[in-house]
Amino acid sequence: MSRQRADSDGSLEPDDEVMPYSDDETDDELDVSSEGEPEPPVAGALHPPADARPSEMAWKVKANDRPYHHLPEFKKKVFLCIKKSRYSGNAIKTYKYNVLTFLPLNLYEQFKRVANLYFLVLLILQIIPDIATLPWYTTLIPLVVVLGVTGIKDLVDDLARHRMDKEINSRKCEVLLDGRFQESKWRNIQVGDVVRMKKNDFIPADILLLSSSNPNSLCYVETAELDGETNLKFKLGLRVTDERLQEERQLAEFNALIECEEPNNRLDKFVGTMLYEGKRYPLDLDNMLLRGCKIRNTEVSHGLVIFAGADTKIMKNGGKTRFKRTKIDELMNYMVYSIFVLLILVAAGLAIGHTYWYEAIGSKAWYLFDGKNQNSSYRGFLMFWGYIIALNTMVPISLYVSVEVIRLGQSKFINWDLQMYFLEKDTPAKARTTTLNEQLGQIEYIFSDKTGTLTQNVMQFKKCTIAGRSYGEPTTAAGLVLERGRPVDWSWNQYADRSFQFVDHSLVECIRSGKDKDANEFFKLLSLCHTVMVEHKDDGLVYQAASPDEGALVTAARNFGYVFLSRTQDTITIKEMEEERTYEMLALLDFNSDRKRMSIILKFPDGRIRLYCKGADTVIYERLSPKSKHKETTQTALDIFANATLRTLCLCYKDLSADEYEAWSKLHQEAQVAMSDRDAALDRMYEQIESNLMLIGATAIEDKLQDGVPETIAKLAKADIKIWVLTGDKKETAENIGYSCSLLTDNMQIHYGEDVNEKLKVRQARRRLEPATFRQGTKKPAEAFFPEPGKNALIITGGWLNEILYEKKKKRRRLRLRRLGKRPPPSNPQDCQPMDDSEKEMRQIDFVDMACECEAVICCRVTPKQKGNVVSLVKKYKKAVTLSIGDGANDVNMIKTADIGVGISGQEGMQAVMSSDYAFAQFRYLERLLLVHGRWSYIRMCKFLRYFFFKNFAFTLVHFWYSFFSGFSSQVAYEDWFITLYNLCYSSLPVLLVGLLDQDVNDKLSLKFPKLYLPGQQGALFNYRNFFISLFHGIFVSLVIFFIPYGAFLQTMGQDGEAPSDYQSFAIVTASSLIFTVNLQISLETSYWTFVNCFAVLGSIAIYFGIMFDIHSAGIHVIFPSVFTFTGAASNALRQPYLWLTIILTVGISLLPVICIQFLHKSIWPSVGDKVQRNRKKYEMELLQEEKKKAPAFERGRRSRRSAYAFSHSRGYADLISSGRSIRRRPAARGVFQESIREVPQTAAENI
Amino acid sequence: MLANAANNETCSTNIGNSSSRLCNQKMVKEEQELANRPDNTAFTQQRLPAWQPMLSAGIVIPGFVLIGLAFIGIGVALFVTSRSIQVLELDYTGLEQNSPCFKCTYPNVSNCVCDLDFSIDSLFKGTVFFYYGLSNYFQNFRKYGVSKDDVQLSGDLTNFKSPSDTCSPYVYDRNNQPIVPCGSIANSMFNDTFQLFQKINGTKTLVPFDGKGIAWWTDYNIKYRNPSVTPLKNAFNSTVKPIFWSKPAYELDTSDPANNGFINQNFLVWMRRAALPNFRKLYGRIDEGVYAQGLPAGSYSLAITYNYPVLSFGGRKKVVFSNVSWMGGKNEFLGIAYLVIGSLCVLMSIVMLIVYAKFKFPEED
């Protein structure tokens, strides 16, 4: 933290501390807000807000007046002339189909798929007699099966949605109807209704809070489902409604008209006014209870429904999820198109062949006379279509449905995985999208949120240093340091929080003996200097802290015997060991990110005035009194803490004399009412009093990482997956976490925004100077940004990111310049502003290139939108597969942008999970998800696709070869029924099982050798090369399958002299050879033989013979003589040993060369996977032995000094405390207090 | 998961009655709490017992040697057998001027009979099969192949009156009378007839052809049925014979009433269409009397009633005498193919052995 930060006001450099402007702010909005800037919000409630433009206030809601909302002016056209109220009911509908619409809609959806449509077209073609080369059922039966399977899947999905909707819509809520509250279902709630909610109820709609049982109509809500933040938020009712609307009767008479903005998806904004009894009152988000939140700590609250059902902010936010496709999906589609093209080419070639053949032979063959007077070219044209039909199986109809089945299976396996099941919260992993599994095996970049994802968002008071002595290592009560300690027993303290753990017994002894003044002062400070609010529940105290760090500190003090009991607007009551004391709070100097400290000035019961201050070491050390002791020792301790990646805070105090305070207080009050630059004036005042401090010590808080995070990151890094951390947190915190989760290491050179900007500028300037060479040179690999050897890391803040990527709003910049009295500097080559879009793009490419050269990238202080932008930059310029993982609403953007979004579930927040593709409870499961499930899914899918294409080529191209011997007449080489059933019954099950179950190596080895993940990233297992290999393999096999029987049939006769060289016997020989070949081929490719696989392979062959003998039986021919015409063919053909020998030879020639080539390939160019597989047994033994020995605990290496401090980024509750509205009053004092607070004028309220 | 396992362990160690009940309750409670916990089965955890074979040198190389040797063995057997089969092929297309059937190839010649003389040097052992063969004849042409009415051929009288459209263009004749049997295949039935004579000292002795049982049993008994009308002729009332036929279906074999209609053996053989454009079809067996043991050496004469035109499309006609073995007729292709593949297998196993020795897998991680 030695870096000198540029002053945020004057300079144009981005400020590392602040987040860039809000997400959804558009240029226009910026414009408006800056233009009307100096105008302070209108105080008082009598005037409508000045900027309330009519267009924004189009939403009108009248309380307790249902008919009002059905007035004609609120109707909108739905369909033709049917009109509907524009106010949605509260019932939500996420399902797609109902009983009537299921069939047509589902069919429509399915036929939107090219492949299905193709088969429909084929079906229609097959009706045309001139070109119908195959009977209709060859296409219809597979198509019906495919449509049926998909349809059933959709149906099941939709039924689940129906159930879910019904469950939610039937939740109960109390609605004010006919003058009294009646229980009603959620679906019956309408806009304008007054509802009553109880503690722990879900909020049924977006509701304007009217009143609650808490004083001042304060209402706590848990917004976890919306934004994932678990700390409670408070909402306030308007004063007027709070006062007048407490009773049922009053509520029933309530008749205000609310005018507000139209429904939108912005969770952070709400503007409206309430017209009540002739007066207008402004409304904002603080008055709103949003659907999806939960009421906490508030017995009863009343509200008015503003937006219901589909209009609510949560519903407006959800829904439109981008349809994600995997790389393989795209590739597969291109391949299907390639096959189409191939099909057309082949059909055209054969059609030309037919034209010539007919010219030469066909037209002269009297026996082929068909009574039609068509010339040979026209016949060729018809034959083209005939071949399109005959060869249609080249496009595998069951491909898509099989792929879907496999993906569904993979998803189930993910859901079922016990090793991704989090016992503590009873949360299994969940694949929410079933279509992306194989993409998990191709991830190159992971973008991770920090809080709640890498860390648990749990702060633990770990260590402290008091007056130069450090505590926190395990010791006995006597102070002997132990290797492993047992936690301190808190039973002596009735207020202790049992979940708090501390292992240093000596500190407790020290405190309890009361000998060590410093230690007592230390915890007293912790119990006094904070903005935590307390709540008394039956089973003890509950602290509400704005940041978990503060909560941890106050809880620590509580356990050490300094219990913060209650606070009022200007007093704090604590229990010091056995004695309860009340301190008068004179001033609260709240935390903000510039100050990095907070102070409190207290008047002790004995009249002393003392200032307590806690803050970051850097700011505190600057303000320490020269007389202060323990500076060096504390500094050493701080270094040690920082090295252990603990977040530290320095604690200090200062005694003030009464005069001193009086003088300052006067100035302070002046500053508070200063008209211009109030903040700066206040800052100066704070600065003045926070000086000459006396150091007490420092605390060290552990921002607890989730289990196994460093190990997981190390593993993933070995698999060449780059991890970027994108967080809204501060740079220091983020950097700290970067070290603690071993993302950053000491041997890394860390680059910050400034360096990056500099480097990019240099490159850009060079590009401008020599544009030609750069443009030509775009193809050659760009030279490295970091030519020095060694690892690099990038830490960049949101502000710099905008600066670097020119994302900054120009207008805003101009305005800022104007305000500062500067002219925008003229453009010159040194300026970093872009000249055009292409330059901006080059800049972005440069940045991405540079970032990708680094081992680790940490972006801090980024907005949700920037998170998404960073992800899309990498996606766009690196063409890489990206994964985002996060837990809160601020991660939704990047989760949706990335190829794969992962949500951390099991925490209260649902927003991230709802928009994610996969959800599980712990970051460490990512390792298993990617390295095991992802890898398996990828390998399985690739194997499946390669084989699937092969098997259809081998199957279909036999017709092609046969054409040369059948006058290009589109005579198929197999029986029609065989063609119909080949993909359905004879060849699909084994490959489906390989797609579901195959494992080249087991999960343990997959994790042990992260390098096995690399082929997935390179897409090495399925690409055009593999496709062509499959194609040639198919061509080879089809050649063999045709020409070996051809040779055998050229001149032969059966054992009994009958000529077996008839077409039907030929069809049986080729079909049987094919079935044996493809089933044995998949057997060769199966590397994980379970009994199911065995069963499937043998079963497929058995089914083939079973069905064939059935179809060729006498009985079925007698019933359908014209459909089953192969009567007796199987039995006659297959009793000839000669034909069996032909089949064996065909199968042998089809398989042996492949085995040979595979063997040679694996011997000469073995892949990592091959090597691991080869030594599988050995490695498995090793693993077993390793498991027996316990792995040594993870060791942290020595790290260089870093600083950290313990405040999270949100401001404290100081405003709330000083406004006095939220503070629980003692019942006895209620009346008096209320008066006093009410009568404090707005400005005076801040005068503490 | 671990916690639960540990729990179960402690439970199992408690043998006392009361404690085990407690245990059960505890487990029930736990199960309720962990409602979302996935099942721990081999299948759901993807730990199904499995065999994981590898294409290792120890399997592949010996495998190739064995397969190669087996193929060579089969190849030798096939080759030797094939060699032992006697085949006599005679072309009688009559394209060449010196051919005895040349005279029949003039247009406008009808009822032409030509005699084909040949001699056999040594005894033609066993039952001798007599085939006629056509080449460049596309019985596998798709439209030709579908031009029949299977329902009609199975003896359904309704399709005698109105044959299926599939028979096009031979459904009805010019007078709109239904054709039975309809369709191109039936219409183009081979109608040359053969009579074989042995010439012993200048006298011709008829060598009888046994034309029974030359078609598949299933064709004769199941697939093709005459309508159950007696006499058969009545079934064909108000139908006409195929246009190219000289006799109606019910008079195909005047000598044997059971060999008429759709179950005439020659008709059945013809209707079983060939897979390839060059084909043979069985005409008769020589297995009667003195010829039961084979055709003795000597000179023979084949009297051919030359009806079937093939010259227009460049086809050829031939007759074939052949005996058979366990593997059927003479065909050297399969034997040679087996021998070649078998040898290649052995060769490749040697190549693989060399490669394996050279690239002996370096032991590394």
UniProtKB/TrEMBL annotation, chain A:
Membrane topology: Multi-pass membrane protein
GO CC term (a single one): endoplasmic reticulum
CC cofactor: Mg(2+)
GO terms, biological process: Golgi organization; phospholipid translocation
Pfam families xref list: Cation_ATPase (PF13246), E1-E2_ATPase (PF00122), PhoLip_ATPase_C (PF16212), PhoLip_ATPase_N (PF16209)
Compositional bias per record (Acidic residues), positions renumbered to this chain: 10-38
Region (Disordered): 1-50, 817-838
Top-level division of the source organism's lineage: Eukaryota
Any one GO molecular function term: ATP binding
Record field: transmembrane: 111-128, 134-156, 334-358, 378-403, 944-965, 977-997, 1027-1051, 1063-1082, 1089-1108, 1114-1131, 1138-1160
Enzyme Commission no: 7.6.2.1
Recorded catalytic activity of this chain's protein: ATP + H2O + phospholipidSide 1 = ADP + phosphate + phospholipidSide 2; a 1,2-diacyl-sn-glycero-3-phospho-L-serine(out) + ATP + H2O = a 1,2-diacyl-sn-glycero-3-phospho-L-serine(in) + ADP + phosphate + H(+); a 1,2-diacyl-sn-glycero-3-phosphocholine(out) + ATP + H2O = a 1,2-diacyl-sn-glycero-3-phosphocholine(in) + ADP + phosphate + H(+)
Binding site for Mg(2+): 449, 451, 887, 891
Family (UniProt): Belongs to the cation transport ATPase (P-type) (TC 3.A.3) family. Type IV subfamily.
PANTHER family the record matches: PHOSPHOLIPID-TRANSPORTING ATPASE IC (PTHR24092:SF48), PROBABLE PHOSPHOLIPID-TRANSPORTING ATPASE (PTHR24092)
Quaternary structure and interacting proteins, as annotated: Component of a P4-ATPase flippase complex which consists of a catalytic alpha subunit ATP8B1 and an accessory beta subunit TMEM30A. The flippase ATP8B1:TMEM30A complex can form an intermediate phosphoenzyme in vitro. Also interacts with beta subunit TMEM30B.
Protein name according to UniProt: Phospholipid-transporting ATPase
Lineage, opening ranks: Eukaryota, Metazoa, Chordata, Craniata, Vertebrata
From TrEMBL, chain B:
InterPro entries: CDC50/LEM3_fam (IPR005045)
UniProt keyword terms in alphabetical order: Membrane, Transmembrane, Transmembrane helix
Pfam family for this entry, one: CDC50
Biological process, per Gene Ontology: phospholipid translocation
Principal location listed in the UniProt entry: membrane
Subcellular location: Membrane
Annotated TM spans: 59-80, 336-357
Cellular component, GO annotation: endoplasmic reticulum; Golgi apparatus; plasma membrane
Record family assignment: Belongs to the CDC50/LEM3 family.
Protein name per the record: Cell cycle control protein
Species assigned in the record: Perca flavescens (American yellow perch)
